[in-house]
Amino acid sequence: MENVTDRLSNPFGMTYPCERPVPGYGDANAHFHVVGDHPGLHGGADAGVPFTDCPAADRLQRALAAADLLAATGTPPEVADTYLSYLYPCADGDPADGDYASAEPQFDAELRAITAHVLLPVGERAIAHVLETYTARPAPDDLDGLHATELRGGGFLVVPVAEPATWSGDDAERLVARLREVRGSDYRREADLGRFLPGGDSYFVR
């Protein structure tokens, strides 16, 4: 199924439990969904766009652009088959566990509406949440050790991304290389139901 909308910011008209939301941004039919933590950590409080207006966001944007997941960096970035969102999208201070819980239904609904094939959780909380919720894998103690690896499960391919503010050495280059490999592979998780339809035309679903 294809989402029909030209809106880049909050394409599904989600409502959020706060006065200053930083809603999801990007292609509503994206194959790649970048999942961050919250605006206080990964930016966007001023622009209202995830992963903007802070050094960690700039670093991540440059890597995504090098891997052709962004057509151009900036505020806002020019997306390319990519969607950006947060576990907690509110720019009202550091969230508590209960705040994440209150925002989780909207996050889950949006993630399932996008139906991306590849999830890129950024930072420890996002990595742990995506693994436990969408792959049924327990989160290991060393979450940073999963940086730029590939994990499959639950209908998604997951490529964890270590917290960009702490990248060192070749962390950025490893992420770019991994994403280029993924883009060059058959990463889609689809089933062809065309055999059940008259005429035999292909009909792919997630």
TrEMBL record:
GO molecular function list: 4 iron, 4 sulfur cluster binding; deaminated base DNA N-glycosylase activity; metal ion binding
Domain Uracil-DNA glycosylase-like residues, every copy: 23-166
Pfam families, alphabetized: UDG (PF03167)
Source organism superkingdom: Archaea
Alphabetical list of InterPro entries matching this protein: UDG_Type-4/5 (IPR051536), Uracil-DNA_glycosylase-like (IPR005122), Uracil-DNA_glycosylase-like_sf (IPR036895)
Keywords: 4Fe-4S, DNA damage, DNA repair, Hydrolase, Iron, Iron-sulfur, Metal-binding
Keyword Signal: no
Biological process annotations from GO: DNA repair
Protein name per the record: Uracil-DNA glycosylase
